[in-house]
Amino acid sequence: MIDWQRAYAMLALRINRLIGGGALSGTVVIYQGPQEWAAQVESEPPAVPGKLVDEAERLLESAASPYLAAQVRAMRAVARHLDGERLPLAEYGRECLGLKPRWVAEEVFEEAHAELDRALPKGSGSLAERLRAWQGAHTLEPIERLPDLVAKAVNETRARTNSIVPLPEGEVVGCRLVEGVHFHGAGAYEGGLRSTIHINKAIPFNLADLLYLISHEGHPGHIAESVLKEIHLPDVRDQDVRFMLSPSFVLSEGLGLLAEEIVFPGDEAQTWLNRNILPEVGVRPDGSDFAAIHHAKNVLWGVWGNTMFLAAEGRADAELSAYLQRWALYSEDEVALVLGSLKPSPMSPYIFGYFHGWELLRPWAAKRPDRVRRLLTEQLLPTDVGPSE
What we know:
mainly alpha; 2 domains; 3-stranded mixed β-sheet; DUF885 domain-containing protein
């Protein structure tokens, strides 16, 4: 089994290098395995994609579990893509993610817009203008105050997650403001019970989203999942090689979007913020409904998948921009910052994991602590997740 695990890690690292990531800071792999394996991949010539397809086929024949087989199938799909295969995006997504992405009807977004209309403060202007005004009213200035507020949010989200599944003592989660990155926030587990939540200081920070983001990136989201699986799966070495364009990350991103609702049901997030954060920075209640706004925001992740379908069809940037502005309620400037991430690439299917993962998990896990525990401590696939009983 050791030889299989090494081959599995090397396959993931070699694919990652071809996509453009370093062995330890990968584009498609979160790697915490033996450093000598990563060093070997960095020192050797870039792999031939066709040979990686062959290696994936060989590993697939001897995969020890359905979970590992699904991960290897995802690697095989990416290797085939790198070797020149061009499946329709939905089919490529199915091979990578373990579920088939679909176009989301605009009627779904219309319902989300109606929810936003009810949840936002009344005012003049379009829905997009009212949303931006609400965001502006909750923007933290200066952003350098954010790490202290994040620490409070981490303590609360961690305590609430601990009531669902016991967390280890001595865990440390820091916050670092960063620049020159494409994300808004990202949680990184560094091993040894130490993690950092990186937040892009170039993007105005909406404090109404504080628990929404920290629960996603921290607890019970990505950091909690990494820490708990390290504890509960100590002998499962494939957890050291997390191939991100895969079925497991559909559940990870779905859990991330669901995380705030899990630990702050109803209006509890807004109540906590109004007691512990917003008065400190001079933000007063305005009658808005944070939970409804965040629910609509999760629904509108489907807009991004639809836009990726349009990009795969070769639609012009102007059409993609118009679609995002119409349905995701982005401004022209906001669209300009993200349009490059929607260009067709080997990583294109990843965007589908957010909406489809959230849609899959919400009826299954939102009010089921036992299932949340499973998501955080077991290796599950989308096929393991069924409708709520």
